[in-house]
Specification:
Order of helices and strands: EHEHEHEHEHEEHEEHEHH
Helix content: 25-40%
Number of strands: 10
Low-confidence stretches: none
Largest sheet: 6 strands, parallel
Strand order of the largest sheet: 2-1-3-4-5-8
Length: 249
Amino acid sequence: MRIAVAGGTGWVGRKVVEAVRAAGDVPVVLARSTGVDLTTGAGLDEALDGCTTVIDVSNVVTTGKRRSVAFFDAATTRLLTAGARAGVTHHIALSIVGCDRVGLGYYMGKRRQEELVLSAAAPHTVLRATQFHEFAAQMLARRGPVVAPRMRSQPIAAREVADALVTLAGAAPAGLAPDLAGPEVLEMDDMVRRLARARGDRRLLVPVRLGATGRALTAGGLLPAADGPRGRQTFAEWLTTPDAGAEGR
């Protein structure tokens, strides 16, 4: 199969591309670096030619509602419309566990993405996953003191999320799939602290509560509310892998 990977150059996108190849299929990366603009549709029809499946792991770097909603509305609409023209038979979107319960601005965009995909005529699957182990690395990638949100999470390795998405690509469309989460519940600021220690990073770490939504985050608003598939790799195990190294930022 030719499988289009929207956002195939990002943190999880690169791993999805690897997983597609490992499964014996052909990945087609949809990103600006490959001549495709998801928000305008430029290059999209040509890239989707011959693709049977779309795996959308595209992302926008923002915490604001307006920008997040605008991006996911435009990108998802373009992908679905172009996919229908190309004869795509399965549209898969990666979302976030708890995005329907926690009122962060970014999550409003993910809600819009879910609405569009779940109401689409095209056969579809939405997989909600918890935060990646790699989220801690994103906190350390910023300059200056490290700001880590106070939140409970059930983190999972991005590689396991990528494998799950590719497995779904080979199965029948499932609508809203069961939540995918990691094997254990951890505090995000502790994860960041442990990763910094493993890297020898001695910068000041400042735990912060994220405004009015902070209570929901610390109370477990981003944890799965029902049974579902669980990853195997613990955060401690991930810390010993190359993905946790400075080169994986």
